[in-house]
Amino acid sequence: MNSTIFLQAIVNGLSMGSIYALIACGLTLIFGVMNIINMAHGQFLMWAMYGVFFSHSMLFSDSYASLLFTVPLSFVGGMLIFVLFIRPILNDSPINQILVTLGLGMVLENLALVLFTSDLRNVTSGLSNSKIVVGSVYVSATQIVAFIGSIAMTFVLYQIVQRSALGRSIRAASEDPEAAILVGIKVKRVYLISFALGATCLGVAAPLLTPLYYISPTIGELFTLTSFVVVVLGGMGNFTGALIGGFIIGLTEAFGYVLLPVGSLTPVLIFGIFILLLLFKPEGILGTRGSRV
Amino acid sequence: MKSEAFWEYPVQLLVLAVFLLLPLWGLSSYVLNTLIMMLFFGFLATAWNILGGFAGQHSLGNAAFVGIGAYTSTFLFSQYGISPWIGMWIGGVLAGIFGLFLGYSAFRCGLKGPFFLLVTIAAAQIVMLVVLNCRALGGASGLTVPYVGSHPALFQFESKIAYYYVAVGLLAAGILVSILVSRHRLGYYLVAIRENEDAACALGIDTLHYKLLATFLSGFLSGLGGTFYAQYILFIDPESILSLGLSIEIIVYPILGGIGTVLGPALGAFILYPVGELARSVWGGSAAGIHLLFYGAFLMLCIIFMPKGVVGLVRRIQEILKGKLRAREVEALAKE
Amino acid sequence: MTGLLSVRNLTKSFGGLVAVSQVSFDLHSGETLGIIGPNGAGKSTLFSLLTGFLTADTGEVTFDGRSIRGLRPDQVCHLGLVRTFQIIQNFAVLSTLENVMVGAFLRERKAKHARERAWNILERVGLAERAQVPAGDLTMLDQTRLEIAKVLATDPKIVLADETMAGLTPVEMHHAIDLLLSLREDGITFILIEHVMHVIMSLSDRILVLHHGEKISEGTPTEVANDKGVIDAYLGEEEIYAGG
């Protein structure tokens, strides 16, 4: 492999990896706080991406401007979904919780199929044609925006959880919900906001992702599974882990496509890593089972 | 186990008789097709239930079993001319062995609940991706079963009615296996493992052994179902027979009907498949995923409002009625 | 002469904490051995080590002439060493009869025979009338009976009963003691863990006292009750004696 392909894979891996990290942060936040395994996470993202597509085609000239639309909407949407579907199952068995979110994912995916058809959509940003060329390696402006934007949002989320009063409640509720109730924290409300924040990660991720990735109803499943791999890799409920995991998976994918004899077998590599992790190191690479958020 | 106390055999035999006589009505091809697919999914749900229901190990990768069965028999038939009737058993055994491999890795490492479920998803995705990239198996464009006209020895029939009877036989066999399991030691052991693995272990149950037995049985039956699908549709591709969508569909029926009961899974398919079919026929042309939309909604609503399924609901109503009857008897006695 | 069960220098630690340290004892057929000790003395850990739920770091367990260290719980159970749990572990959706059948299947392959065996045992422990009730709906006393019935159904050589009396009212406890006494009459060998001192004193032939994982005393109930070391270990837990 020559150095151009190698460097190009790194560039692609880092930009997609940063987005995976952001998506996974949302998933890991939800899991860390309320122990819900959200199998509809990728489908939320897919809807947010359609949000970008439609707001771009109707309202804004630049797709990045649809942040103004997708961020508040994903926050409210997250709240709504929490109240309707998650709150009733908070005390159910983990399997039942998975099945409900799985059903939710099915509904969201097929509703999108019915409403938006299976046509692939593309969104181009004003930046889509700008790129930096270093030697023979192309770095598109959209990749840079995706990278910076994702890292920034992850950082903001981390600051919220670690530094703010809300974050203190979130951490208390995740560590010991009963004790949190005793000290006067409204745990259900904390759950609601955490879930909405988890969805907001997707509201931010969608505009960053759309210039780089096509939109279709079925991509949700793919992103759900990929973000699970990232989350398990980093340790469920672990932010730093999700960030590292995102980059690992992004780079693995990028290199898989150029290194494997059959590039389209790359997901096999990723699912293989996933299975081995679950079997032998379910606490993730950072290896602190139980430490959450 | 008194699992089906209110549906003793006479009722089951009556249902079977109705199904056997049904085609005499001269049903339309469309209705017959719906019934065949309903029976087929009832069978897959029944097979899932042996591991997921009795043993409580929820697999979300059963499409892999179905796919392995379908691809094995189709490959053997189209390449070597081996009759699908034989290929069916080979496919079933291969699917069962795949289940053993998967189950051994997962159970040996102590995976339970959600983690087992995630591993089965990933494993099934790998099987799908491998087939997608395997030219000998047709890749994304799938495999066509060579058409030989009416040839019962090669599992091909001219009339849908023949397929219908094969499907009835398949489901009857699946339910028979479930009955046998639930009435014998294996069934008791599986439920004990599901309810409390440590306590089961303390009573001398080799839990790994019995979980693997259930995995093999579940995989084997699902594999047989795969061959039936291939022979009926005469075409298989990864999208239709190896996808996560199929695995989810297989799990929805038992949840609606009643997980861990003998008849619940098939009952779930009998209720939900026609609903999906109806939705497809009403909105069909314009909306591809409409039936899956319904399935997803059913899945959510069932878990939230009816976690024990239709069978559980019926039992509860019965208990309430019994309670009322008893209360009335007591009242009558008091009056005397 | 070593007995039916012989334990030598059994040691288990979790991280830095030594839960069971150098414990040795023998048990003869037909005998009832009581194990007492303050909370966290390592009693339940000892049970888990004996029945294969945990593997000892060092030491040896010989049962019926063969080493059982490293065997799985189900293998240990097959040999005839069976435990109950401190927190009652029923198969809640199964009926009382079916719960006992699960145990009976260890020795009877056929459901019909297992059912007969389970019936006999239910009658023996006084649960026959509750046979069709889901185990989850039983009273505490009946749950205790069921816990013992399940174990008896496996035809054990030694029953390890972990705090069978936990959660029972004094009256219920009385019934449970009667049951254990009558089973002892039948020649069943017991190892009992019990917090309630008068229970263990009246049931045991011999008592072993654990403290911080170590055996600090062993002897007849009277000997142990007068042992200065034991009294010191229990200092500040007078309420336990108050029961006796």
Describe the structure.
The complex is a heterotrimer of chains A (293), B (336) and C (244). Chain A is an all-alpha fold and 293 residues long. Chain A is 71% helix and 3% strand. Chain A is built from eleven helices and two strands. Chain A has a two-stranded antiparallel ribbon. Chain A is globular and about 60 Å long. Chain B has 336 residues and is mostly helical. Chain B is globular. In chain C, the strands form two sheets. Chain C has a six-stranded mixed beta sheet with strand order 6-7-8-3-9-10, with helices on both faces. A four-stranded antiparallel beta sheet of chain C has the order 2-1-4-5, with helices on one face. The longest helix of chain C has 16 residues, at 170-185. The radius of gyration of chain C is 18 Å and the shape is globular.
Taken as a percent bin, the fraction of beta residues of chain C is 15-25%
Instruction: Tell me, briefly, the overall form of chain B.
Output: globular
| Number of E-state strands of chain C | 10
Distance between the termini of chain B: 38 Å
Listing every helix as H and every strand as E from the N terminus to the C terminus, the arrangement of chain C reads: EEEHEEHEHHHEHEHEEHHH
Shape of chain C: globular
Query: What proportion of the residues of chain C is helical, as a percent range?
Result: 25-40%
- Order of strands, main sheet of chain B, comes to 1-2
Major sheet size, sense and barrel closure of chain B: 2 strands, antiparallel
- Numbering strands along the chain, what is their spatial order in the largest sheet of chain C? 6-7-8-3-9-10
- The oligomerization state is heterotrimer
**Biggest sheet descriptor of chain C:** 6 strands, mixed
Q: Number of helical segments of chain B?
A: 14
